[in-house]
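With this grant's support, we have paired protein sequences with backbone structure tokens. One protein thus recorded is set out beneath this paragraph:

_____
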Amino acid sequence: MYHAQVLLSITKGLCYSQTTNMHYFQVGDSAMSEKIETPVYAKIALDIAGKIAAGELIEGERISGRSGLAGLYQVSPETIRRSIQLLEDIGIVKTRAGSGIYIISREQAKQYAERHKVMTGFREIREEIRELIRQKEVIEARITDLIEQLEEQAGRLQNIRPVYPYEVTVPARSPLIGKTINDSKFWQNTGGTIVAIRRGNTIFNSPGPYAIFLEGDVLLITGETGVDSRSKTFLSSNEC
């Protein structure tokens, strides 16, 4: 009964999935799968060493025979033999013929568990650095691509002539006063497009066809060369 409890303590936390042929460690009520990067026998040895280091198994205590461990870990006796041999080589346990496996050094178990923890952390940091370098290369490539696109757009922009609107004021007694842009047929008579009307301190952008001309309105007009003079003439003409 005592040895069964000891074996249960050893395997608490280490489970085996026959579906995936993977070992995983149970934490509370959840299980976190761990990809096996080292042999199963080394995982079992680490699990036993960890429990010895944590004081769950006491130095001088007999833990069990190989067949019992093989049954609880659901592995072959040969796998357990290799696990115990590893622990013996490190100086954590000692097999006594006809008696069983005894824990001989908690200190060695602590060192073994700590060394594994450090190495695991080292590998994780190394992999994270590799991933960050990969992301950095992707970002740098994207930045280079965007810079090239920006330079291309800047070159195209230099070849486009900027459009500056002409300013024409509606004079007093202009025949257009009180008329709408649509009624005056402004574009048909001048070839100019009214993009805005400045009236005092207010600017009306993109006035619609029903905007009304008032005395003193400043019309912002775009069009071909000469549209400003044609607009001034039209605004003053009695033929509007």
